[in-house]
Amino acid sequence: MKYISPLVSPVFGRSGPRSLAILGSTGSIGTSALKVVAKNQDTLRVVALAGARNVELLARQADMVRPRYLGVLTEEGARELRGLLPGGYAPEILVGREGYAALATLPEADLVLAAQVGAAGLVPALAAARAGKILCLANKEALVLAGELFRRTCAESGAVILPVDSEHNALFQAFAGHDGRQAVRLILTASGGPFRTWPTEKIRTVTPAQALKHPNWSMGAKISIDSATMMNKGLEIIEAVHLYGADLDEVDVVVHPQSIVHSLVEYADGSQLAHLGVPDMEIPIGYCLGYPERLNIGLERLDLAKVGTLTFEAPDPERFPCLRLAREALTAGSPVVLNAANEVAVQAFLDGRISFPGIARLIEEMLSMQALTGVQDLDDILSLDAQTRTRAAEALGRGEW
């Protein structure tokens, strides 16, 4: 196995604070990152925040850290944001996809935290990699859609990718300092979500409110639904292949309901190195923002005696068909289709237009009907993504799911 990027940057050995651009600052990852910044103000300095449509929260965040740049999706949002900012503070506000890409490549930003949700995070994350940034990547879809493109880009630009996802951050920590050629298996842990023990018949009646109640983690709506279907783990399988240069059969998933062991790496001698910690995203975020040093996070310490018992089980393929679909999509070269169909299906479920089991059915339908052409570059990826979304929307209108 070979990691996706070099792990060398002049920033790592430099004294003084690191400058940080956060794309997706109003989401769960972005808000957690700002908590880490608040605890490490001598080490981290925010130069840019981008918050899509939640301009009220973005304005409050901007008032706290006073970055020079802000980003939103629309001109209307930019006008609203200007009206919410305090007097005497006039940052430059960038708008839309081009604005996000500009924020990702700011000369004064040492680190870019890519925390947008879904395929929308691909273009700015890739822009940061092309600019040779230290890319703290919380957007798993970027690698799902364009893993090989990111690997080539990092080799050309010298960009460093640090994984923020708790599972991939755990693998990274267990992988680092060891010869990747001796790693033989990557084991992703999964909580199993809220329906791990539900009878299959009952799962057919799941409501959005039930699916949004994750037992261990506090997350946004999309990732919460992905956790309930275990598509998040399917996407993480694909992400692991690209991040670590693993073969698909070298990546396994085990259900671990307590969410204390965050993932494991197995080596040729049979050793398994695990990363343990309380289920709080400030830990992997802080590890990336401070890498290779560890920042002060100030969370409650893990007490294994208090936890008492750690259990593990194989995922149920009947209850979680999205795991199979993710593996099939990677084998077929169609992860773009998988991701686009999933994003459409999840939103349809949240809107009450599709059943919970219908999410997997719609994805499988899109994978079966998509005639693939060569997907070589960013334009190909974006085109296939758009085509799949159109087809999925049309399929939704044709029948009950």
Written account of the structure:
By secondary structure, the chain is of the alpha/beta class. Helices cover 46% and strands 14% of the residues. The chain has 17 helices and eleven strands. It has helices at residues 28-39, 55-65, 75-84, 96-104, 122-130, 140-157, 166-175, 200-203, 208-211, 221-229, 231-244, 282-290, 304-307, 321-332, 335-350, 356-369, 378-398; strands at 18-23, 44-50, 69-72, 92-95, 111-114, 134-137, 160-163, 183-190, 251-255, 261-267, 272-276. Strands 4-3-2-1-5-6-7 form a seven-stranded parallel β-sheet, with helices on both faces. It has a four-stranded mixed β-sheet with strand order 9-8-10-11, covered by helices on one side. β5, α5 and β6 form a beta-alpha-beta unit. α6 (140-157) packs parallel to α11 (231-244) and α15 runs antiparallel to α16 (356-369). The mean pLDDT is 93.
